[in-house]
Amino acid sequence: xxxxIAALLVLAGTAGAAESTDNLLALSxxxxxxxxxxxxxxxxxxxxxxxxxxxxxxxxxxxxxxPQPRDRAYCGVTREEERADRAGxxxxxxxxxxxxxxxxQLIRLMPGVRSQLERHEWTKYGSCYGDxxxxxxxxxxxxxxTREINAALGPLMAGRLxxxxxxxxxxxxxxxxxxxxxxxxxxxxxxxxxPDWLISEIRLHLRxxxxxxxxxxxxxxxxHPVPSxxxxxxxxxxxxx
Length: 241
Fold this sequence. Notes:
This is Ribonuclease T. InterPro entries: RNase_T2-like (IPR001568), RNase_T2-like_sf (IPR036430), RNase_T2_His_AS_1 (IPR018188). One of its GO terms (biological process) is RNA catabolic process. Residues 1-17 form the signal peptide. By secondary structure, the chain is of the alpha+beta class. The chain has one domain: Alpha-Beta Complex (Ribonuclease Rh, Chain A), CATH 3.90.730. A hairpin with a 2-residue loop joins strand 4 and strand 5. The chain is built from nine helices and six strands, in the order αβααβααααβαββαβ.
């Protein structure tokens, strides 16, 4: 782990424009992601299969925090960086500027740092986020959101390994944690794996400025539910399916 922390420790920041107030938080169910990547050389999936990421069966992992609309991307990055990102050459992208505490949290909650996912997410989406603290502010906000959502949904998911979970009960769990209407912000994404539909990701539609010093509830609360990709799916456990 020390090697990954060292790779993320860069004492620089990048200030942006006004912070985005319309964002989509994408959180992956890591066992399902890796199940769909069978045969892939992704180091985070090898670590999962080797039993080195046991916490991924009790909570979601950070995919990204995306300013809306989704085509709002690559703000102020060079053409070379955009080309490298679009080509999937993420190891050619600049390193991310984080302090030790944030880097340590990111390695745990975003296993994809082993494949330079954090460089991709910053280059394409974080560059448009506009936090005054630059990269550090963007990832601090994203990690805080991930922890808050996991506190509400993690117990439900951990109790459903190899069994289905439904969108309506996940929305109720968010309502219980953050107040009525919070669950309406939740979108469920499923992917087919043979005869099964696996929960691969959840997406939270957030409205308002994200600030870890303030309650999350107002950002989630909606009068009507957002559209969802699926209504239920299997909660995949780590290891071969």
